[in-house]
Design goal:
mainly beta; globular; 1 helix; two-stranded parallel sheet; single chain; about 0% helix
Length: about 210
Amino acid sequence: MPEYSLNAEPTHSLWNRALEPRIHIAPGDTLHMECVDSSGAQVHPSTTLAEYLKIDRTRIHALTGPIFVDGAEPGDVLQVDILEVAHKGWGWTSVVPGLGFLKQRFAEPFFHIWKFEGNVSKSIPPAAVPLNPFCGVMGVARAEDGEFKTRPPGIFGGNMDVRELCTGATLYLPVLNRGALFSAGDAHGAQGDGEVCINGMECPRM
């Protein structure tokens, strides 16, 4: 079957079924998608805490897409086979006061850059954190007209943060619009059972 590539830019940070598809593919085609990190490429391996606190948060969950699947119609089911999720060698995690499950425990902001070595990160010795990259956001365009924030998930998928949706997994989504209009992003190098501090190991992916 044909193979295609789609680079990350331009990304989108809102669900909107009126967005122009960036590529058309057929069922069974393979698509190699590049994704920036969840900050929309505002964070880099040299970013400091002070710089991180100034990022534009309207660009959070920068998604690659939409992808138009030929023949997909409302009422169909879109099957997404995740053949491989590869990282780009680094990621980041933050703690922002007032956010997260343990918000009463953290009064000061914290920011950490992770370096990835193959399938592990040893950025906080002596710990060796195993990596298992996946996309936190995978979904199709919502059925309603208008723009919608990406944070809440729904029947369309979206910000599910299911760490098992990694290499080898299959995701099934309801088609709500012609062409499905699939997008993905918010990649993580690793994550626990949920995002206790709001972030996993946020990272770009290829």
